[in-house]
Design brief:
This is EamA-like transporter family protein. The chain is mainly alpha-helical. It has six helices and no strands.
Length: 153
């Protein structure tokens, strides 16, 4: 058994387990302060400070301003996507509940991942096939069973 793969899978599962907690904490912060936008800002500010401390402790070299300026502009969208993700989680978890929110996010991630894999965005294309579509359909069914949009709130 590949221990590196097993450890990586365990870490990914643990991160996945705390994402609902992040959304709940941010939503509570928003409820007790100026709302979900402020709470999302605080979440990113605290995260930025934490990562800055890790960078300093790890002695990670920083790229030069010239290297940063030479990067393709689209690479900066990752931060915007992260901010939208945190804001939407903060906004939606009180409306949908943690389980429904995370299931819908996972479904969206699967669909988006199939598209970027198929198109080869930033990597070698990995075409969509029947097995991968079946897997996405199962994730969709699972999300629907958790969300239960036909039920009462």
């Amino acid at each position: 058994m590949n221990l590196w793969l097993l450890g990586s899978a365990a870490l990914a599962a643990i991160v996945g387990m705390v994402l609902p907690l992040q959304a709940l904490l941010n939503a509570r912060l928003g409820a007790l302060t100026a709302g979900p936008l402020f709470a999302s800002f605080v979440s990113f500010a605290v995260g930025t400070l934490a990562l800055a401390m890790v960078l300093v402790v790890a002695r990670t070299p920083w790229p030069s301003c010239r290297e940063l300026a030479a990067l393709p502009p689209g690479l900066w969208l990752g931060g915007i996507i992260g901010a939208v993700f945190v804001f939407c989680g903060t906004l939606l978890v009180p409306r949908l509940g943690a389980a429904s929110l995370i299931c819908l996010i996972v479904f969206g991630q699967v669909v988006g991942s199939l598209v970027v894999d198929h198109l080869g965005v930033l990597s070698t294309p990995r075409p969509v096939d029947a097995v991968r579509l079946a897997g996405a359909a199962l994730v969709c069914v699972g999300a629907l069973l958790v969300v239960r949009p036909w039920g009462t709130a």
